[in-house]
Amino acid sequence: MVLSSLSSVLWALVFVAAQVILSAGYNKCVARNFGHDSVVCECNSTYCDSIGPVSLPPLGQFSSYLSSIAGSRLEASQGEVRANSSGGRLRLTIVPYQKYQKIRGFGGAMTDAAAINILFLSAGAQDQLLRQYFSSEGIGYSVVRVPMASCDFSTRLYTYADTPGDYDLHNFTLAPEDINMKIPLLQRAQALSPRPLSLLASAWSAPAWLKTNGALTGKGSLKGQPGGKEHKTWAQYYVRFLEEYAKYNLTFWALTTGNEPSAGMMTNYSFQALGFTPEEQRDWVSLDLGPALHASSYPHTHVLILDDSRILLPHWAKVVLSDVHAGRYIHGVAVHWYLDSVVPPGISLGTTHDLYPEYYLFGTEACAGWNPLHKGVMLGSWDRAEQYAHDIIEDLNHYVVGWTDWNLALDPNGGPNWVKNFVDSPVIVDATRDVFYKQPSFYSMAHFSKFLWEGSQRVGVSASGETHLEFSAFIRPDGSLVLIILNRSSSDILFEVWDPAVGYIPSTAPAHSLLTLAWKRQ
After folding, report:
1. 348: exposed, middle or buried (C-beta count within 10 Å: 0-12, 13-18, 19+)?
2. Fold of the domain spanning 104-449
């Protein structure tokens, strides 16, 4: 009994010491200001800020993690749960019996450009960068999207089967970009991750000889009709990709039916695309892709349709998922964020979920800096971090089960990109100095990916009155609760959280901040 008591005391002291180290600035952000509204955190081969593995305090206490325009970056602190309300504050009430979707995960894309930038760094800096994303001391990415062959974030145009007339894909071969860059980095990421990574494959274009326009770019779709030789070859191309990556011990959780099929229907579209109407996609899945996967060694690989902006929902889902022959091969609907401001989430995501609750919704691409009015990299932009957090919370509150960022790393110009479609990234690599910068958007992602483990289930949360706060609550597999709160206003907002299982949690969301609260409930 005495030994047990001593052991408890020692563990308590260790926990307190860890919190003191954190609050004292252990692995603190090395801030650099590039003239925007906030700062980046600079990392090199020997140092990078990190909050490390996170454990929760005992029942009756809570943990808080704050990032803000003022410069806080996952700043950790603790507080006491109170038995009584502090009164007069906005109250956020947890409603645990209201249960919604379960989380799959969060992540980013290992594009050619991302791989090039990571490999430009020294071995030590590469390891630091990968650890920041994938290790237990990092932010817990569990999803990696992998382009099948080239996209605009490549340095050249290519597919894996560029030999005209090779319908049996005898000459199918992975590219040097896969063998020398993406695959080794994915293997290293997997080795760092405490859990198996969920790999997600997306193709931008079929080989030119399979397409109506004879080119990888521009307006063009598959020749022939679903069920025909071109469509069957394109389905087998997916199977061959899975087979080749499996040789490197990389297996895919899911694949999409093709990146942004609407782009391939546009005249003079400037980079790789393959056009599909929802009717054509429905029939290709039903007659070609679904049967090909079912007959392969990968019948359990998930198939996600659309992989395009949610403005196309619910129409696209109605066309494809209402067909029983296609629907039996499909697991979910993939969405991009680019036109989210055009259509309310309830009309698109909510309606799709209500019509087809057996199919999950998954965010597969997003990036800042894509808008021509604010193009490319903005080092230190807190506004872009808020854009991320707002969209993620909005998506999560409308049944989305995960959210995938675009390039894991880009250069200071927002590339390389062969068509100069430069955008921003949560990590920007400056190879000339052998450093990388963690943008505010990196920490925006972290507030979700670090704390919302796979299997976490969204639960109800309601506000006692009108508020500028945006929020979403989840019960994790271990029974603990996570509440994520975004304050995009220019004023501090005082509030308290009422969890019937534990009591009242007093808190403040500073102006322009993102806050994650977490506590045990049993």
Report:
1. buried
2. TIM Barrel (3.20.20)
Sign of CA dihedral 374, 380, 382, 387: positive
Residue 244, classed as helix, strand or coil, is: helix
* Architecture field, domain 61-102+456-522: Sandwich (2.60)
Alpha helices by DSSP H, listed for 351-438, are 351-355, 382-396
Question: Which of 260, 394, 470, 496 is an active site residue?
Answer: 260
Catalytic residue, candidates 75, 177, 280, 365 = 365
Catalytic, 260? Answer yes
pTM exceeds cut of 0.90: yes
Q: Is 58 exposed, middle or buried (0-12, 13-18, 19+ CB in 10 A)?
A: exposed
Intrachain domains 61-102+456-522 and 104-449 with the same fold: no
d(CA 497, CA 64): 12
Which residue do the tokens 């509440």 mark? 483
Domain boundaries, the chain: 61-102+456-522, 104-449
Beta pairing, strands 457-463 & 90-102: antiparallel
Predicted confidence (pLDDT) per residue in 339-373, tens digit:
999 999 999 999 999 999 999 999 999 999 998 88
Per-residue pLDDT of 420-430, as tens digits, reads 999 999 999 99
